[in-house]
Amino acid sequence: DVKVTQSSRYLVKRTGEKVFLECVQDMDHENMFWYRQDPGLGLRLIYFSYDVKMKEKGDIPEGYSVSREKKERFSLILESASTNQTSMYLCASSFVRPKQYFGPGTRLTVT
Amino acid sequence: TQLLEQSPQFLSIQEGENLTVYCNSSSVFSSLQWYRQEPGEGPVLLVTVVTGGEVKKLKRLTFQFGDARKDSSLHITAAQPGDTGLYLCAGESGAQKLVFGQGTRLTINP
User: Are B42 and A58 a contacting pair at CB < 8 A?
Assistant: First the structure.
């Protein structure tokens, strides 16, 4: 079975802190994605990556950056966390389009 | 920007009843997926429909893709408490990306 793991299930950070969310997949998938999920808004794509060191902006990239140094790992970075970035963050990976496998999510609270 | 509108956003029914969830767009999608998400977990793929007019069944769940590939529906027959969850539709938006609907939070009461 494909496994997508995220570094933390719950995270509390203060405004202005730099935050790293890490995602690891174990199935050699080319594509990886970061979404945020907010009630009534569904999942919104922040960034995605087709390959190592490649990244593409999604629909809401402002305030975020990403890093993909290894194929299995995709990191989401909040350079200076703000309260409006409090959300559930979901990582996904895919190989065969368009089926995506999701991690369990990280619930981030910024105070 | 492609958008998917799901309705209803909330649905609470009694065990044994039937229900339908709708997913509509003004855009054409090359495929459409349905996911279910349990509390504290990520979404899990239930089905992918690709051809206009396609119908797929998964036990008591029936999924349909509209003829014009702009809309889809999920019908559950004789709902069970185990069907409780958040149901998300997602359209393939090209280049491996998905566009998600807002989700339907379904509660089945025993």
Answer: no
